[in-house]
Amino acid sequence: MSTTARIAVAVVVVAILAAVPWVGSDVIVQFGISTLLLAVLAQGWNIIGGYTGYASFGNSTFFGLGAYGVAIAMVQWNLPFWVGMIFGAVMAVAFAILLGLPVLRLKGHYFAIATLALAQVVAAIVSNIPLFGQNIGLVLPPLNNDAMFYELALALLVAATLTVAWLTRSRFGFGLIAIRENEEGAAVMGVNTTLYKVMAFALSGLFSALAGGIQAYWITFLDPASAFDISLNVKMIIMAVFGGPGTIFGPVVGAFVLSAISEVLSSEITSVAGLFFGIVVVAAVVLMPRGLADIIRHFRTSGWRYFIQNVKAHRI
User: Fold this and answer.
1) Contact 48/204 with Cβ under 8 angstroms?
2) Cα 34 to chain center, whole Å?
3) What's the distance, CA 112 to chain centroid?
4) Interval 174-190: pLDDT, tens
5) pTM of the prediction?
């Protein structure tokens, strides 16, 4: 498919998604808001995890900071929603830069472990600060306008996807891919690896924070446990890996497919939905470790042997 055809298809898909609040039921719209925000988180993680090759478990921290930015601005300072979005984004980006400078010197599982405990540490700190509502949390002013939240989430997902598309054609993006493939080699070629990694971490944190701000105003309640939930970070990683890390549309497709599967399982077989969802994820990792995007590229030539080759290649 040519680039023009891909852009045309993407525009049509966005137009169809934008029309959902005007033709869909309240349940569909609420499912759409949740799925779109998860897709933004997966796309944000894709920048640092998929393109740079650093598997971050700290993105849920940026999500929580963005959510608290909106909550503090609206509840404690009586400021409008958009000011809170900016405040939360600034907090998250500043935190990503300050944290990234020391932590991004670590590699592989050392980096993953260093970011894994981050959300719990920040949650413990926040729960002792009165401005953040401590353990009681903050209650935001309610706004019964799901259509607005849906369109905001869709606009944010489009912005995140366009940013990732820009990465695939920019010098900055090529630098990130070079770091992922061979960091020492990238440094020899003149790539400022520290600067590039910190910028990728901050960009990833920015989209996570903006998604957190929308989520906070939508659900109108925020406490440390829900804002810095580590399981949210696991979800965004699974969705990005399922769809295809390091691709433009893979994380978005992964978020939509897995959210739909999870929703169907939860409604049809409530008691064992988590078990079946786990089986789906494990089977996907075993049979297609490079995600749905890789299947689309190679299934036409390899057929069903594609899955057998993956199993043999990874000696499973």
Assistant:
1) yes
2) 12
3) 16
4) 999 999 999 999 999 88
5) 0.90
